[in-house]
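User: Could you walk me through two proteins back to back? I'd like the raw sequence and the structure tokens for each, with a short line separating them so I can tell where one ends and the next begins.

Assistant: Of course. Protein one, sequence then structure:
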Amino acid sequence: MTEPSDLPTDSTEAENHEATVRTLGDFRLLRKLGQGGMAEVWLAEQVSLSRRVALKLLKQELMREEKYVSRFQREASAAGGLNHPNIAQVHTVGEAEGQHYIAQEYVKGMTLKQFLRKKGPPELPFALHIIRQVASALKAAADAGIVHRDIKPENIMLTGKGEVKVADFGLAQLYGPGEGVDITQEGMTMGTPLYMSPEQIHGQKLDPRSDLYSLGVTCYHMLTGRPPFEGANAMAIAVKHIHEEPTPLGNLRPDLPKPVIQIVDRMLRKEPNDRYQSAGNLLADVRRVQKAVRGATSVEEIELANAPVAQPVQSGRGQLSRRTAIGLTATLFVLAGAVSAGVGWVTRPVDPLTVPPRPSDETIVRKGSAQEQFIHAMVLANNEDAFLEVLTWQEKSDREWVRKAEEQLALMYLQDPDRWSDAEAMLTTIESYASENERYKAEALAGRAALLAYQGAHQQSRNIQDSQLASLQEKLPPQSPFRRLLNEARHLTDQNRNNSRGPSKPPAGPAP
């Protein structure tokens, strides 16, 4: 089992780069961390803020034409607006001494590529942990209208605490929609065509489903120790992505549960319409498999009630598939036995008293509107899948009900210690609506204050209560469940004002 302590504390362990100190604008370059096809990466100190960053220095040949410079600045700045726990934050984009750069969050740890080189394929719980967090990052990016275009093991960071962060949002945007990549160019790195989608190789316009294909290639590599297609040069690999099928994952890893194989196979389909239609759909299936793995003692038990993944059913717009048609059946996770202890740090058992029972015998019906879908979810009560179904409604008129569903999901996730990272991500989504209504900002802060109190970070929770929420409390109605979360956070921090005693258990059942 891969433990957080197995991961290095610095990404430079794999290589011994020269130490050179020089300045570039506000940055003092400390040492070179590595280089790729588009940039050199340096560990640097941002002097004005006294913080360390990963400073990416764009290669001059990419910056010779003004169209590339303007697109780089525009798209990298847009990526800087992404705020998600599984995305390495872009701090700033700029130019100094004729050098264009991106200052990005410095993540201590190693890339997935380095991990695979040192340790080989991870055990299944850790692999699912990685897939889930990357999928969560891609969902946040897609919601913001951003396609990464360069998902690969080198751009997936693993921290010493086992967190996963996707890097290089913004940097990969240099290859814009409809432009493709010249895979015959001199010096073209092999890392890119190894993970490209067929439509990206063809130079077609890309959407988030292209990132899902690249994630599928990455997952195949992670689970087998090698990518699905290899060749003597970039062109040979690209041709295989377009015309050949990989060796079936099940042939190379017969020990894997069929649901895991089906998830990866779906991401690897050549036609975008045959893949998952959104990262949210992928995320739902990965979560289901994680729940099954958590409660199972054998592969056979995981597959006990498995139904095959169905073909996607296209909507009238041809963009999103009906989630109920493509997901693994809910009965997959009604497994015999209690949650097994000792599975490891990734799949720690949850106190059953803190988790509301999940209905397993209720059918989620596709309704005629987002409002009806939300009401249906409320009737089913604590059914995550029912609220996730609301999120598949995408029209402008659906936004109110989608946001109501997101609020309910945040409340549910807060009650499950194993879903606290999902709670944080959902609260971040809710907070992004603050420009429309300050209530969303207040809800996100109240939820975050409660989450910190549950985790034992009482002083941080108190800081949110006393400063950030001071002028926004009136935005929370007295009967709001977020107001009750705030009151609970106050109660917990008052109890622990003098001495933090570690994580506190949330109350039984979600806030009403």
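----
Protein two, same layout:
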Amino acid sequence: MFRLALHWQILIGMVLGVLIGIGLRAIGTRQSSLPQESLPPGVAQVEFQDSPDEVTIVVTTESGDVSTYVVGGAIPDAGAENTPAVFLPTLKKLSGDAPEIAQAFHLHGRSWGRWLADGSNRLGKLFLRMLHMVAVPLIVTSLITGVMGVGHASRLGKMFGRTIGYYLLTSLLAICTGLLMVNVFQPGLKANAQPAGSEAPVVSGNLGETLFEQLETLVPKNPIAAMADGKFLSIISFSLLFAIFAVIMGGRNAEIVRDLFTALFNVMMRITMAIIKLAPLGVMLLMIGVVATQGISVFQSLAWYMLTVVCALVFHACVVLPLILKFVAKRSPVEFAKAMSPALLTAFSSASSNGTLPVTLTSVENRAGVSNRVSSFVLPLGATINMDGTALYEAVAVLFIAQLHHGENLPIDQQIVVALTALLASVGAAGIPHAGLVMMLIILNAVGLPVEMQGIIIAVDRVLDMCRTSVNVWSDSCGCAVVERLQTGETN
């Protein structure tokens, strides 16, 4: 039976969500008042005017005093007009400052358009909650399975150190490229509208203290509690430590651990893929909520966002990695790319590093001439923990969301936190389609950004996922050539 590919389903869901959201904005205007029986003591009248871009609430007391709340409208310049109105950026802010007024509006003042948009947004957040649900077990099983695939403890020597060193270096270079591009293009600042929640200030703290707090997070007091509380950096560090020592221990115990976590990882992949199948519906619901309340102008910056990601990926794949190939591995980047073309095309079409692994192994060994001793060690590990494209994408996406949320760039100390967290989060990203969405939650939490804003970029995630997965596989392949050259050089 004919079935559309997932990325086409997501695209259709996005388009439908945008169209429905535009339709809801057309019916998003309503004037009403609070029923007499619901008026609080001392209040004579409460009038609501709900429009897609602005909410006005006028409260008249029995003594004749009038208070006006304007939510979402343009704040007048200081001194331009003497108005007693209270200007608030979002309904969430109104709920914090005047909870009784906000509750009255939600019960009696919302238009049908806003009511349906709010309902769609709540349902769409269920999809994000499911991503939260699988994040911890997916990280643990993915990391332990990848490291356990190394084999015997004797293989954890210099080859392991060189491989990990290459992975960390290229991932960090990718993140730096992403940060550079997002600061140059500033895609989030080119939007005419900002998503809900933009009232939050940018919090900048002492850089040394911030970095030391990140270091402390890497050493959990209680790993089980860290998993229960969703402290992702603690989970990543403990999982790596557990897997490394399981390999060193070896024997029957290591086999049991490897078999157990391989089975658990396979189950988690099935669960995650089942959740990802709901992405078209989740995207549609989230897009309805965004467009109905923010308007189509919020998507003007998505074109700049995609351009920023693609330019950063192209620079890393066509400049940074080829230079490493040329001067470290002593290989021709063009010839090596031709040899790896089957794997790169498979990665692009499948958006799965794990799914592409058999093709990558075959291409590296049979077409690029890398020995099986190196490729069988480097590639399985790389498919789990070497995610250059994912790390770059997450850094760009989080700074893009921060620009939308705050209306300005994050300070340098927060950008460093993003870089370090993206580096560690990419290590825990499973090699399956859309795994970066799960890992991005880590970085958003690390810099205090609302995770629901992730819904803005989900609509274009599949296209960018295909691009970044190709970069992931290309980096793994280059790593094989680099590690083999270093091993050969030592032997000679």
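The longest helix spans residues 112-148.

Let me know if you want the two compared in more detail.
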